[in-house]
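Reading a protein record of the kind used here takes only a little practice. Think of the row as the fold of the chain written in a discrete alphabet. A record is reproduced here so that you can trace the correspondence yourselves:
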Amino acid sequence: MPLEALIFDVDGTLAETEEAHRRSFNEAFAAFGVDWSWDKELYRELLQVTGGKERLQHYIDAWKPRGGEVVLARFADIYEENSAHYAALVKSGAVPVRPGVRRLITEAHERGVRLAIATTSLPGSVDAVLHAIFGEEGPSWFDVIAAGDVVAHKKPAPDIYRFALEKLECGPGSCVAIEDSENGIKAARAAGLPVLAAPSYYLKGDDFSLATSVLSDLGEPDRPCRQIGGLRFDRDYVDIDGLNAWLCKQQRSLAAAPRDPAQIMRRSVEIG
């Protein structure tokens, strides 16, 4: 079964966005006179909650910081301020694209492999990143942009990936999810997708054992990626031909595996 579509997460997968998100939250807090400053270690912990609004609500509920009632009263305004700061940072070039992303997506577009987004980020944030990477036509390359509150339950629930697959009208066996986090991997795997994972800066400590393969990044011809674990990817960088070969290998390993779903998942992680 040949590769039909690539489904990408956004934050940490297309680009190292999380530091820009952290800065934007802090700038929004300051703009509303809230004496909060999320440092990197705290933000790394908060990233275990998917979705920016959910992350902020979780911080208020779990940490009970002074000023929480002010933020709750102006929640929508503060989040809108945060989003505006983030869009400005992305537009300024403050968000570095991850290795191989621009090359792989351009090749997929040129070769007719369909493209989709499956993310907890809001559509405006997704558009900002796609425009920054690919220019004005970037968002039009993607057949499906499943983002934000389009589904009720966010990652690690599989809803966003199931939504993307339904809109693509593709079966999970002919698609590949590309992720950077444990929650994203769990979501994609629960939807039946093979997952190529490339840990991002903030989430290198996540558990990636459920990913089909784990690479340092997508690599470039002059800057090879590093194999970390899972099913062996036989090239030094991720391209469409390599993904087709990898997908065939993954399909053969599943065909030879026991039929119990839990055993199938474990086997796809262990083979290398």
